[in-house]
Amino acid sequence: MTRLRDIVLQVGRSGVVTPVAVVEPTPIEGVIVERATLHNFDEIERKDIRIGDRVVMLRSGDVIPKIIKVLTHERSGAEQIVPRPTRCPVCGSELLDEGALIKCQNLTCKARVVNAIIYFASKPCLNIDGLGEKIVETLYGSGLISGVSDLFSLTPEQLLTLEGFKEKKSRNLLEAIEAAKGCECWRFINALGIEHIGEVASKTLCAHFGSTLEAADKAQIMALEGFGEEMAESVVEFWRVNEAHVTHLRSIIAPKEPPRRAEAAQNPFKGKTVVLTGSMSRPRDAIKAELEALGAKVSGSVSKKSDYVIYGEEAGSKLDKALELGVETLSEAQMQTMLEVRA
Fold it and tell me: Each residue of 267-318: pLDDT tens digit?
């Protein structure tokens, strides 16, 4: 139990405004928690959450804490109702209220631009080493970049004008940015930040269309495994609105076209949806690549459609959910035995 001190608003790269609870510092499972997710304003209204409330907070599976209950019987009458925002807390633009989602539509909003660049450079995307949140904010705040394509025109002289940047740090960052050129096709697609399109979907799109998605129409995309109408519409609409930007970016980065992979031989994992969780004896990426080579689809979340959840040490909420849903679970050793029997 804790007390809700305030509710602050965060704007993500897609423009979605997310309310975050600021709570009195509270120890939970050895961690001091000061913030908790509130999901959206529909959830705030449904639970009647007010600033000043005593609340019950849950943190399970090492995920972001959330408020699950308000202790309304402890109210003093001084608690404040939080109105739905109508203006972006970062740029001041009028917000689009779609019910569960409230969005800033301003593509030049600082929060949207900065978070898009951070995502672009992140490990599942172009994996630009050293280009973290603080450095992106510094580069943007100094006016050296206003979008992702500006990263590739940075010079040592520009970086050396920034506080904390010496010759070695500047050189390392520029080398990391240069190394992102010629990345795998799926990393390029994933880095674009298309709504509803993550790593798995990016790999599927690249395997079928390469990096030039403009050739694909809605029907062709919907025919892909795991794609529905919403995802297909998102891809087509993104390309329609941003074709010039993507074409320019592609000319700079020159992503590799995916190799034509031979049809995987029949094996226990071919055509199966697999989830990995916990610490493994080998790097998770290596196991993931091995399974994908066998024709498996490696997903980041567990659902009723999952075929296997493969777990290592200290497996958390994904293993719990698999057991709850009745999804077959395999230890890393059991997975390895299945592969060896196949061999």
Answer: 899 889 999 999 889 888 889 888 988 888 888 889 988 999 999 988 888 9
CB-based burial of residue 147 (10 Å sphere; 0-12 exposed, 13-18 middle, 19+ buried)? middle
Q: 185, 190, 213: which is closest to 201 by C-alpha?
A: 190
Please calculate the CA angle 170-175-181 and round it to the nearest 5 degrees.
Answer: 140
CA distance 247 to 239: 10
- Biggest alpha carbon distance in the chain? 69
On the question of a common fold for 110-179 and 185-253, the answer reads: yes
Concatenated DSSP letters of 109-151 = -HHHHHHHHHHHHSTTTT--TT--HHHHHHHHHTTS-SSGGGG
pTM reported for the whole predicted model: 0.69
CATH code at 2-81: 2.40.50.140
DSSP H or E stretch at residue 47? helix 41-47
